């Protein structure tokens, strides 16, 4: 291991042949693309907010921040994000520990099912829960009011509490997956040595296990926090009717209300900056927490960790887990499926009220829907392919070429990770609506550019992971066998990272297919995406059709995930 | 004929000088081992020779053709140097089968298909891996992968092969086997081998000549293994070659005195090579196996501090004039002569000592 | 008074392919108080599994384990005392030092669990650190220290509670050779000072022989031989033990009537006094390379041909051909013989062994991967 690491990070001069060869060209190309797609939007937001012409102007910024309705959306955003992170972390931690360290049965099944929420956009969940718990029309509430005769609903989903609940359901897997992975990789002798030293099971968890998985918990919690802060769909669907706004939805409202006027966009930009500030503050907090880290816990020998015997608690815990899985995963999906077959929303859920009409309409008659499916497919495939190649190129430059500007390149490529989708959308509008003599507003290309910027971080991370596994000696071996630099890349490096690239493609294709947050600001009359179409139909009140379309989207996502699983299983070599 | 010639080469990264004005010639058909502690620059030397890194000064020539020379602005890329390389981590390509791995260099050199297959299979047979031609590297053990790497290097160049710590990651038994095989191959094929390692034992066993490098990237000694073992150039080389004992001496003309912590003992009858050129503060160097413990009152007196039984030998810690040295004795011999007891007094005979300046 | 007793201890478990493997087979052992006792064997032989059963990390399939006069595992009665109540000290191969606690806190951990007072913790920890030469590193974190120092933290932590029994699971194999040697003796010193019993698991026979008062050799879950190191080395029970304890030659031989000769060779008898009651047939003649005398004087021993001469630092190795077989001889540098020349061997201390079935070696390799 030590040998591998010293060679990976040795500051060696590589075999750069000519002064301006392949490697240097790639570096420059990466730099240019990243600056244009990522840096420019961010800069434009800052400039347009704080500058009128060439003069510094705080006026707009302070005006927007201080407006009472904006202030309340700021407070809502932080409150919701805080609670979602809190509950999501607790839930994720509990289940991670249950599956990673106890002897509960059905682990494989539960682990697979717990990752399902990860696959679907949270706003589907919002739709589903709205179907059940909307204060007047939700099925559960209606049933409750019928049975008890009361005029107030059992639970109102159109509240902050409702938003927190739905987001928690969909974001807790972030912590769950990180902690389960950490527990699986942790050296079991770290806990065994504590047991031998006299500590009981719970003492060990408190003093040894928990502190050691803290980085994983923090990483997962940070993902939840940032996702919630940037999220549009759930507060949009659940909050609008009750005038509950968060920063992303407020930004959307500002821009929509002003019908795309420049002033409106400026105000939206001002609010975006605030959102970015909050996100950056959260990232900084995470760094502080993890700074005190001495956390090398990865084991060498593959020994099975000692499982904690649940004994009497086994059945109750198993029941709770399965029940929560049903509530979180099964029920919402079922609702969407059923309602998609209903003749009209509000009708009782019986066989005679089912029809295929909705599907006929959305797939057969609605041009808008057909277009949106085609648009989303086009956008997902092209952004997947483009970002994957971009990611590989950047990762190659950063990891193998290691030029002097690589730090800057790395930062640029990871920047979009911390910029909320709505903010990126605004930045892209500011850059590509004629500011530089190119006007792509209301075309599909502006959405493509935004997607590329949005997903380049994923692609970079995924490509880096693949490339790092290709040890430089594999390429050097090819060189010493007579292959030129280009040939060794083609014959050795590329085939070895190909499986990783394909997996990476799907990691972008899938979220892009169901994406809403970014395209909701960028779509034009003919360039709706699937997510936008579902959201728009739902907002217009065509609940049953929205559910049918959502089911179609779910089908596409499931097929895509199966394809991903199939491909990643079939990995040759590395 | 010198197949490789390095003249005054320096490799420098910023302020860090890894190799300093090193000159070296490799004779055709020999096995030359380059030995030194880790990060002494031996791998850097090999990478400079193969063309993976640039040198800052000097020239490297292969078969009288200059391949690296900053002054003449010559830097022949690795693919044109025709050196077969075996890397420390084998670097066998996981996505190609064993035979595809070996065919690759032949493809790159545009060897005709049938001839290429013949040569590849021949190389495979030489490393005794013919049955594994269609396997993937992930289905092979470490030792088997190493053999594939060796076959690939043999096919890459019939003249010069460089091996970088090729067997360090294998277990002891396999290490020995591979070392013999490498030596055999070299003798049957007449190829020149440059062998880089920190393991001086293996180097001694398989090389015709050895180079000992120090941590500053300089050559300390060059010669046949036996010469180096019998006459290490200085105390650092002596220490590097194996477990060593050093005792401080003082010289007065031809008389030597052992400087103990509390007393001094004269050393009579010690046949050591002392030249008059040496100073007066010297070190007596000896190997644990070349020291005998006797039961008489003659010679240097010592106390046995610790006796450890290791099966095939006994290991003693012996205190001489306050200094601790290590002595080893074959266990059969020890039982026959009487195993010492901890605390016992014995006298010491040095069978094959060397003298170095302090 | 016996300190550790294992009675008919057996451990079985099922592998992924559905088979049942008997990792430890009817293990019986009494370790006396104050002894340094080693379990020696190749990877996969069951020695670590046995140690973990003594520690309490694995349950038994069958049998009993007693510590002193207290039973800690009796399968038949379903008695199982968890590890934290067994009062043992343990050092792991991976050190298992907690990265988020500094040196002091690592060593103090067991005392904190026992809820000792602050003053007592301070003094006992300091004492343990003194004994392991770590006092100056008290406030450091493990990641800032070398492998050897981390191992000492593990030692200090294990001795701070003054256990009667210390379990060491290959504690030195992750250290470099020089350090391994010096740490061996540090452990022995600690034992002398504190007078605890040690069970030491290792695959390195030099280590086992250097450290142990008594030791056992394990193979495929069973104890093959127990005794003092010198007893085992001088009288190995079978081919496996012989081969495991040091460099060996196994010459395939055939016994006919009253003499033995090398298989595949003309029937030149090898001078060796056969053990009584031996059947005619094939067998192995085991010898150590350094226990064979070699000379080039005619009539000086059993004739053979020198095939290869290898220069080694501490000896010269001759690979000597006897018919179709090759054995190794180690002799001093002063004996220089040419490759291809005839030589004459005297076996100073050979032993006869039965051949071992091939299936055994195959099983050993499979066990390594489980």
What labels would you give this structure?
heterotrimer; A: 574 residues; mainly alpha; MetI-like fold; 2 domains; two-stranded antiparallel ribbon; globular; disordered N terminus; C: 370 residues; alpha+beta; Rossmann fold; OB fold (Dihydrolipoamide Acetyltransferase, E2P); six-stranded mixed β-sheet; five-stranded antiparallel β-sheet; 9 helices; 26% helix; 34% strand
Write the layout of secondary structure elements.
The complex is a heterotrimer of chains A (574), B (358) and C (370).
Chain A: H1 2-9, H2 22-50, E1 51-52, E2 55-56, H3 59-66, H4 68-101, H5 107-114, H6 122-133, H7 139-148, H8 160-185, H9 189-196, H10 201-230, H11 233-239, H12 247-257, H13 262-291, H14 314-340, H15 357-365, H16 367-401, H17 406-414, H18 421-432, H19 444-468, H20 472-480, H21 485-513, H22 519-522, H23 530-539, H24 543-569
Antiparallel strand pairs in A: 1-2
Helix pairs in contact in A: 2-13, 2-16, 2-18, 3-13, 4-8, 4-10, 6-8, 6-11, 6-14, 8-10, 8-11, 9-10, 10-13, 12-13, 13-18, 14-24, 15-16, 15-24, 16-17, 16-19, 16-21, 16-23, 18-19, 19-21, 20-21, 21-24, 23-24
Chain B: E1 2-13, E2 16-27, E3 31-35, H1 42-50, E4 57-62, E5 65-69, E6 74-75, E7 84-86, H2 98-108, H3 113-126, H4 142-156, E8 160-164, H5 172-189, E9 192-197, H6 200-206, E10 209-213, E11 219-223, H7 225-230, H8 235-241, E12 245-252, E13 255-259, E14 264-267, E15 281-286, E16 291-294, E17 300-309, E18 313-320, E19 323-330, H9 331-337, E20 345-350, E21 354-357
Parallel strand pairs in B: 3-9, 3-10, 7-8, 8-9
Antiparallel strand pairs in B: 1-2, 1-4, 4-5, 5-6, 10-11, 12-13, 12-15, 13-14, 15-21, 16-20, 17-18, 17-20, 18-19
Helix pairs in contact in B: 2-3, 2-4, 3-4
Chain C: E1 2-14, E2 20-32, E3 36-40, H1 47-55, E4 62-67, E5 70-74, E6 79-80, E7 88-91, H2 103-113, H3 118-131, H4 147-159, E8 165-169, H5 177-194, E9 197-202, H6 205-211, E10 214-219, E11 222-227, H7 229-234, H8 239-245, E12 249-256, E13 259-262, E14 281-287, E15 292-295, E16 302-311, E17 316-322, E18 325-331, E19 342-347, E20 351-353, H9 358-369
Parallel strand pairs in C: 3-9, 3-10, 7-8, 8-9
Antiparallel strand pairs in C: 1-2, 1-4, 4-5, 5-6, 10-11, 12-13, 12-14, 14-20, 15-19, 16-17, 16-19, 17-18
Helix pairs in contact in C: 2-3, 2-4, 3-4
């Amino acid at each position: 291991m030590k040998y591998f690491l010293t060679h990976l990070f040795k500051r060696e001069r590589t075999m750069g042949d000519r002064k301006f060869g392949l490697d240097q060209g790639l570096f420059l190309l990466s730099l240019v693309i990243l600056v244009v797609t990522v840096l420019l939007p961010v800069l434009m937001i800052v400039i347009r907010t704080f500058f009128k012409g060439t003069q510094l102007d705080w006026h707009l910024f302070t005006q927007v921040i201080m407006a009472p309705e904006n202030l309340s959306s700021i407070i809502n955003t932080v409150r919701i994000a805080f609670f979602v992170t809190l509950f999501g972390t607790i839930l994720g931690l509990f289940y991670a520990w249950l599956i990673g360290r106890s002897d509960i049965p059905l682990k494989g099944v539960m682990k697979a099912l717990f990752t399902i929420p990860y696959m679907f956009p949270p706003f589907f969940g919002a739709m589903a829960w709205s179907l059940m718990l909307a204060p007047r029309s939700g099925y559960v509430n209606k049933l409750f009011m019928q049975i008890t005769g009361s005029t107030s609903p059992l639970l109102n989903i159109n509240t902050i509490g409702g938003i927190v609940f739905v987001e928690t359901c969909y974001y807790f897997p972030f912590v769950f997956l990180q902690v389960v992975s950490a527990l699986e990789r942790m050296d079991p002798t770290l806990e065994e040595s504590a047991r031998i030293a006299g500590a009981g099971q719970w003492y060990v968890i408190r003093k040894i296990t928990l502190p050691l998985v803290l980085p994983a918990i923090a990483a997962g919690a940070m993902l939840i926090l940032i996702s919630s802060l940037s999220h549009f769909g759930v507060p949009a669907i659940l909050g609008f009717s009750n005038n509950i706004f968060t920063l992303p939805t407020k930004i959307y409202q500002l821009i929509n209300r002003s019908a795309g006027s420049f002033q409106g966009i400026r105000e939206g930009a001002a609010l975006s900056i605030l959102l970015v500030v909050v996100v950056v503050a959260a990232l900084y907090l995470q760094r502080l927490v993890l700074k005190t880290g001495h956390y090398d816990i990865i084991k060498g020998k593959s020994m099975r960790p000692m499982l904690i015997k649940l004994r009497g608690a086994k059945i109750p815990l198993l029941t709770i887990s399965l029940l929560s899985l049903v509530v979180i995963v099964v029920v919402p999906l079922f609702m969407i499926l059923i309602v998609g077959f209903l003749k009209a929303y509000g009708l009782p859920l019986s066989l005679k009220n089912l029809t295929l009409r909705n599907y006929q309409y959305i797939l057969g008659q609605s041009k808008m829907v057909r277009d949106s499916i085609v648009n989303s497919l086009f956008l997902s495939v092209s952004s997947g392919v483009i970002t994957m190649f971009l990611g590989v190129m950047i990762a190659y430059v950063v990891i193998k070429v290691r030029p002097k500007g690589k730090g800057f390149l790395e930062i640029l490529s990871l920047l979009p990770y911390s910029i909320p989708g709505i903010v990126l959308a605004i930045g892209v509008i500011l850059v590509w609506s004629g500011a530089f003599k190119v006007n792509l507003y209301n075309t599909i290309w502006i959405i493509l550019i935004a997607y590329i910027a949005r997903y380049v971080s994923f692609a970079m991370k995924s490509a880096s992971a693949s490339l790092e596994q290709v040890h430089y000696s594999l390429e050097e071996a090819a060189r010493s066998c007579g292959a030129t630099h280009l040939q060794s890349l083609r014959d050795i490096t590329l085939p070895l990272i190909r499986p990783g690239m394909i997996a990476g493609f799907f990691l972008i294709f899938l979220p892009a297919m169901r994406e809403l947050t970014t395209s909701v600001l960028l779509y034009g009359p003919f360039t709706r995406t699937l997510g936008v179409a579902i959201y728009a139909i739902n907002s217009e009140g065509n609940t049953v059709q929205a559910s049918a379309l959502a089911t179609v989207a779910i089908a596409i996502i499931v097929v895509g995930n199966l394809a991903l699983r199939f491909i990643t299983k079939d990995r040759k070599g590395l | 004929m010198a197949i490789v010639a390095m003249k005054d080469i320096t490799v420098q990264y910023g302020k860090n000088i890894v190799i300093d004005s090193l000159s070296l010639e490799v004779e055709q058909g020999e096995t030359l081992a380059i030995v030194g502690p880790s990060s002494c620059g031996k791998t850097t030397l090999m990478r400079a020779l193969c063309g993976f890194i640039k040198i800052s000064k000097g020239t490297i020539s292969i078969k009288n053709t200059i391949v690296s020379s900053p002054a003449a602005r010559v830097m022949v890329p690795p693919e044109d140097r025709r050196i077969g390389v075996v890397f420390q981590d084998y670097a066998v390509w996981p996505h190609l089968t064993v035979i595809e791995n070996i065919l690759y260099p032949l493809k790159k050199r545009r060897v005709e298909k049938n001839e290429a297959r013949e040569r590849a299979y021949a190389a495979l047979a030489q490393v005794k891996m013919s049955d594994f031609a269609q396997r993937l590297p992930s289905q092979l053990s470490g030792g088997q992968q190493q053999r594939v790497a060796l076959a690939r290097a043999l096919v890459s160049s019939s003249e010069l092969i460089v091996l970088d710590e090729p067997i360090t990651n294998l277990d002891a038994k396999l290490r020995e086997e591979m070392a013999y095989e490498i030596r055999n191959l070299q003798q049957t094929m007449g190829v020149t081998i440059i062998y880089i390692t920190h393991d001086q034992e293996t180097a001694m066993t398989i090389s015709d000549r050895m180079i000992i490098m120090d941590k500053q990237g300089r050559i300390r000694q060059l010669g046949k293994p036996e010469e180096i073992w019998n006459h290490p150039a200085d105390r650092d080389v002596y220490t590097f070659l194996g477990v060593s004992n050093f005792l401080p001496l003082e010289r007065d003309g031809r008389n030597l005195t052992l400087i103990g912590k509390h007393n001094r003992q004269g050393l009579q009858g010690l046949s050591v090579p002392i030249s008059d050129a040496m100073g007066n503060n010297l070190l007596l160097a000896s190997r644990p196996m070349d020291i005998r413990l006797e039961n008489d009152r003659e010679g240097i007196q010592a106390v046995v501090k610790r006796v450890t039984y290791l099966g095939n030998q006994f290991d003693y810690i012996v205190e001489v004039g306050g200094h601790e040295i290590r002595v080893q004795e074959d266990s059969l011999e020890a039982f026959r002569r009487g195993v010492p007891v901890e605390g016992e007094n014995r006298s010491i005979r040095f069978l094959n000592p060397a003298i170095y300046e302090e | 008074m016996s300190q550790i007793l294992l009675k008919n201890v057996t451990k079985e478990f099922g592998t992924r392919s559905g088979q049942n493997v008997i990792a430890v087979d009817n293990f019986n052992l009494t370790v006396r108080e104050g002894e340094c006792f080693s379990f020696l064997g190749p990877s996969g032989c069951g020695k670590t599994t046995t140690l973990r059963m003594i520690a309490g990390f694995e349950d038994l399939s069958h049998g009993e384990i007693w510590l002193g006069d207290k039973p800690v595992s009796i399968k038949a009665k379903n008695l199982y005392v968890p590890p934290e109540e067994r009062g043992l000290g343990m050092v792991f191969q991976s050190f298992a030092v907690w990265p988020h606690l500094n040196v002091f806190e690592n060593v103090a951990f067991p005392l904190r669990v026992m809820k000792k007072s602050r003053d007592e913790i301070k003094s006992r920890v300091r004492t343990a650190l003194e004994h392991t030469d770590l006092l100056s590193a008290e406030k450091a974190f493990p990641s800032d220290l070398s492998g050897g120092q981390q191992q000492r933290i593990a030692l200090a932590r294990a001795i701070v509670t003054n256990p009667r029994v210390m379990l060491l699971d290959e504690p030195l194999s992750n250290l470099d050779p020089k350090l391994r040697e010096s740490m061996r003796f540090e452990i022995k010193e600690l034992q002398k000072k504190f007078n605890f019993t040690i069970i030491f698991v290792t695959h390195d026979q030099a280590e086992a022989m250097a450290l142990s008062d008594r030791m056992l050799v394990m193979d495929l879950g069973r104890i093959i031989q127990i005794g003092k190191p010198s007893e085992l080395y001088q009288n190995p029970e079978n081919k496996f033990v012989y081969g495991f304890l040091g460099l060996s030659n196994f010459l395939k031989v055939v016994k006919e009537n009253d003499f033995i000769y090398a298989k595949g060779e003309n029937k030149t008898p090898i001078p060796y006094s056969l053990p009584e009651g031996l059947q005619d047939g094939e067998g192995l003649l085991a010898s150590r390379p350094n226990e064979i005398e070699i000379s080039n004087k005619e009539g000086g021993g059993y004739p053979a041909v020198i095939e290869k001469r290898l220069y080694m630092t501490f000896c010269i190795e001759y690979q000597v051909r006897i018919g179709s077989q090759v054995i190794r001889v180690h002799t001093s540098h002063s004996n220089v013989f040419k490759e291809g020349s005839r030589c004459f061997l005297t076996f100073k201390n050979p032993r006869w062994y039965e051949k071992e079935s091939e299936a055994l070696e195959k099983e050993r390799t499979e066990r390594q991967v489980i």
